[in-house]
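Q: What structure does this chain adopt?
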Amino acid sequence: MNISFEIVPRSLEAFEKQYAFVQSLDSGINIINVPDIQRFDIRSWELATHIDRRKYRFIPHFRAIDFKIESGELYRIIEQYRLDDILLVTGDPPEGLKRSYYNTDVIDLIRAVRRRFPALNIYAGFDPHRQGLQHECHYIQRKADAGANGFFSQPFYDHRLVELFAEHMDGLETYIGISPVVTPASQNYWEVKNHVKFPKHFRPDYDWNVEFANRLIDSAAENDWHVYFMPIKVDLHKYFERIGLAKACQRSHSQCHRQERFELFA
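A:
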């Protein structure tokens, strides 16, 4: 089982602080995901030189609306930073008119990048809260048909929903999203912004979120899934000291040892 940790690049100092925390865990985390967020100055791929890529797989996110396929700009970045893995998402249009963007469809971008880099690991996202189950699963399949190797999900908060999607993700490398929500304000944000419907028994506190995360980790170990931590506005030490990552590694020992990187541009 792979365990991924997302670090949001609010600043280089903030990134280095969370990266140091990941290194201190020594608990089977073997992937660093970095989203690309328009309001921050640091682009996701620029962190390639700040990560020990002998120890961690580095997966920067790219927003399709930031790239015109014909320009070849994304190809140049992949080659310049010697990327082995990327995650392609649609991306939200910028607020106001401060930055230009393109009407690039993420499926078209996946297909184009796959043609250019046949051996590249291309991941895509899926959102269990965005639309109906069948519609989202059809969208996932279209991305897979275009050339996506696997998928990273938005966070789940209901194990029943995980099981429903798992039935449709058979044969696809799938990372189940885990993002603790420990305040009522954060819960309200997820409900309004991302249309999350929390189960009736949900509580926005550490106890509920730790218990739920450990349950998902156990399910991942049993079902050949992977997990994707997105810790947002949370006390990292307070949360992760109770997360059973070592237990998951013991149950899935073949994937928790150091993973050799595939040198795409050797």
